[in-house]
Amino acid sequence: IKFDIPSDNAAVHNARLTKEFFQENNITLLDHPAYSPDLNPIENIWGWMAKEVYKNRHQFQIVEALCEAIFNTWSNVPTSLLETLASSMPKRLFEVINKNGGATHY
After folding, report:
1. How, if at all, do strands 3-7 and 27-31 pair?
2. What is the chain's mean pLDDT, rounded?
3. Which range marks the domain in which residue 57 is found?
4. Do 20 and 41 belong to one domain?
5. Which segments constitute the Tc1-like transposase DDE domain (predicted)?
6. Per-residue H/E/C for 24-91
7. Measured between alpha carbons, how far is 68 from 80 in angstroms, rounded to an integer?
8. What is the 8-class DSSP label of residue 15?
9. What pLDDT, in 10s, does the model give residues 41-68?
10. Are the C-beta atoms of residues 8 and 36 closer than 8 Å to each other?
11. Do residues 77 and 52 both lie within one domain?
């Protein structure tokens, strides 16, 4: 089986053991810049979470309340959002390639 995994130069992806694992398992890494928000759907999740945590312009008076809201929001990320982001990856890759690494609408 061959998988294409983005290589974003993160330390975990550049570790010797990680590289060996990828090579031994015939996993091809795709080159892309270290900071590639268009290819990093977690950025969309962070945006969704911020909207949820601060919806209705909610302000937190104590750090503990903010932490609780963040953890509760993280625990309730909709499966549909995760599925949508995962299924958008081929289109994201295609658009980044077509724009020669330039910004996309993602």
Report:
1. parallel
2. 82
3. 34-105
4. no
5. 8-66
6. HCCEEEEECCCCCHHHCCHHHHHHHHHHHHCHHHCCCCCHHHHHHHHHHHHHCCCHHHHHHHHHCHHH
7. 23
8. S
9. 888 899 999 999 999 899 999 999 999 9
10. yes
11. yes
